[in-house]
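Before going further, learn to read the protein records used in this course. Taken together, the tokens spell out the fold as the letters spell out the chain. A record is reproduced here so that you can trace the correspondence yourselves:

***
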Amino acid sequence: QLRLVESGGGSVQAGGSLRLSCGVSGNRISRYSMAWFRDGRWGGREGVAASSKIGNVKYGDSVKGRFTISRDDGKNTLYLQMNSLKPEDSGTYYCAAVIDDYLSLRPSDYTYMGQGTQVTVSS
């Protein structure tokens, strides 16, 4: 059973940066396509960024140019570097994993999801 644990959330002022981490246990992260999602202030789960097993990446339109997804296979960890944060980036952020080789921002394509970490951006 794969386990995903997010960390790195917190409170920051608009324009600031945060780096989220997702520690993976139970299997090697290299076997999985990974993604970040968030539950925003307006409800619903939004796809933020995705990373396929072969290293391709994809971003939601609202975060392009500001967020970067990356993975460290040696540390079995997924990251989300968030720069130029805006109040509308506030929400609970989740990492997700699927064994198939996807590059998807749809939550339904992922088998595993963590418990989330809270990000609050104040204006």
About this structure: The chain is about 0% helix and 50% strand. The two ends are 40 Å apart (CA to CA). The mean pLDDT is 96.
